[in-house]
Design a protein that fits this description.
- The chain has 16 helices and twelve strands.
- A six-stranded parallel β-sheet has the order 9-8-7-10-11-12, sandwiched between helices.
- Helix 3 packs parallel to helix 4, helix 7 packs across helix 10 and helix 8 packs across helix 13.
- The longest helix is centred in the first third of the chain and has 23 residues.
């Protein structure tokens, strides 16, 4: 969105979302007009009346999306897939409105497999995904925030981190992750003897982390920096760190690669093992070490900390840079512009070079 608005200052953005998602609290605050379909943003998977109601909401949302698109007449539609994309892409195809879908997981979800053929073009984060979707499908990586222009010293200064010891970033995702937090509780006294730990706890984990910090020796408390969540400072945390312990969501992997940040990657064990597949590229490239979720404990964190002093770390950082596609967002914007203008799309080779360019 930032790059879209930078290139097209007069651009009018509208968001078609669903219920049961975060759209209502986030989208209007970003200055984007929001309309919500009857469909819920997240499909029910447990046994409840919604198992019957969700298909009915889906069917009813197609004419609702048609009416919205007829009223707005957008030049192009962009979607990141998900359940709510099905009626939107179906309506766009009926009206001849060009559309672009992005799939961030190596194994496409069911809703993407159902709706991808209705899109004009498809983009994916991983090369292995391309053959699972209809052509044209382009490998662009994951659109992420711009990390260019920020060096390690500046990033550490922004966060008040020491300059003279390694920094370990531990980030389990947008929600509190009990396994991560419990592992840290068992290992933190040893970790702060060797490094500085930036720990993103999730909102519900910050109180316990702050209490844990107060129990550390006075001379070591500054080496443990828990945050409930990092918003505008997440870019600084990624650049400041020397090693990341985190999940294998496509955004986390893409931002780590763009920062040249080696990882100890702990895939989320559920959701059809999508994250284990996501992690394969960085692990196979030598940019990450994989630890199974059930194996993440205090000892595993102590072992991860040892990587900070291992000669492999430099090679892991170089490998991360090699797989990075830091300009995925710029490539997405270019594709949207060409689709809106009904102009030919670039070749896969041209787009590959575009995604790997650094600002």
């Amino acid at each position: 969105m930032t790059q879209l608005r930078a290139r097209q200052p007069d651009l009018e953005l509208r968001w078609l979302g669903g219920h049961r998602g975060l759209e209502a609290s986030i989208v209007p605050g970003a200055g984007i007009a929001l309309q919500r379909l009857w469909l819920r943003s997240l499909r029910t998977v447990d046994v409840s009346p919604n198992v019957v109601l969700d298909p009915l909401r889906l069917a009813a949302s197609v004419p609702q999306a048609l009416i919205g698109l007829l009223r707005w007449r957008p030049d192009v539609i962009y979607t990141t897939g998900g359940y709510v994309a099905i009626p939107v892409l179906a309506a766009a195809a009926l009206l001849g409105i060009p559309s672009l879908i992005w799939e961030g997981n190596q194994v496409p979800g069911r809703s993407v497999r159902l709706s991808a053929r209705a899109a004009t073009a498809r983009t994916v984060s991983f090369a292995a995904t391309r053959d699972r979707l209809p052509p044209p499908t382009f490998v662009i990586g994951t659109p992420i925030r711009d990390l260019g222009g920020l060096d390690k010293a500046t990033a550490r200064e922004r966060l008040g981190l020491p300059m003279d010891i390694p920094v370990l970033l531990i980030f389990g995702g947008s929600q509190s992750v009990r396994r991560f937090n419990e592992a840290i509780a068992g290992a933190i006294a040893d970790l702060v003897e060797r490094c500085c730990v930036v720990h993103v706890t999730g909102p519900s984990g910050i109180a316990a982390a702050e209490a844990l910090r107060t129990r550390l020796p006075a001379g070591r408390r500054e080496r443990y920096r828990p945050f409930g969540f990092l918003h505008d400072e997440m870019d600084a945390a990624l650049v400041a760190a020397d090693l990341l312990v985190g999940r294998a969501g496509s955004s986390t992997l893409a931002e780590a690669a763009a920062a040249g940040l080696p990882m100890v990657v702990v895939p989320y064990p559920h959701a059809a093992a999508h994250q284990r597949a996501n992690a394969a590229e960085m692990v196979d490239a030598g940019a990450a070490v994989l630890v199974a979720d059930e194996d993440l404990d205090a000892d595993a964190l102590r072992e991860a900390c040892g990587l900070l002093f291992d000669e492999r770390l430099t090679a892991m950082s170089a490998a991360a840079f090699r797989v990075a596609r830091p300009a995925a967002a710029a490539a997405s914007v270019r594709l949207l512009e060409l689709l809106a203008a009904r102009e030919p799309l670039p070749s896969a080779t041209e787009l590959d070079a575009m995604t790997r360019a650094r600002s």
